[in-house]
Amino acid sequence: MDAMQYEITLPADYDMGIIRDRVATRGHLLDDFPGLGLKAYLIREREDGSPVNHYAPFYLWTTPEGMNSFLWGPGFQGIVNDFGRPVVQHWTGLAYEEGPAAGQASRTATRRRLSVPMGIAPAEAVAEARARHAREAREDGVVASALAIDPRHWELLHFTLWAEEPAASTPGSGSDFAAYERFQVLHVSAPERAGLAAQPTGTSVR
Predict the structure, then answer these.
(1) Where along the chain do its domains lie?
(2) How much is the pTM?
(3) DSSP string of 127-185, one letter each residue
(4) Looking at the domain covering 2-198, what would its CATH class be?
């Protein structure tokens, strides 16, 4: 499993209805894309309390071939043509869990990025992150949750899809809520979602 995301920052006065229309008319095009576990079409809006307007799609790939096919194909080129070429963030997958609300539609997503401090053994940091991820994935309202790592920058990523806005008592919005970034989910394409859970944890598919 590979996790991938790019964030397109839009002007403060940008009409986010344009992005909503874009997803409504084009989002289904990846509903059967080979190698794609899931793609969550995410936005953040200033009028909703975000510091910026963002279009920030998030991907979980079951195969590197699928990811490469998208990046070098017409789908990503459409993004480049319309918004310029964004930085594509990439993490190696560590774990994926279906949550108690797996059968429901996703309305909200949370993302938490944590640096692995110097002096902590990578294996220890990953083991602790996996344990936390397993606990959080069982919280009420969780549709699905993924854990991944970028070993270049030693950054852990916790990403969760929620059926509704997470309650104040959940890990995504509790005492460490400030560490989480919240997104609206406009659509989810998930042609190979079942394959995400079937893959071994802690290993890449490469």
Answers:
(1) 2-198
(2) 0.89
(3) HHHHHHHHHHTTSTTEEEEEEEEETTTTEEEEEEEESSPPPTTSGGGSTTGGGEEEEEE
(4) alpha beta
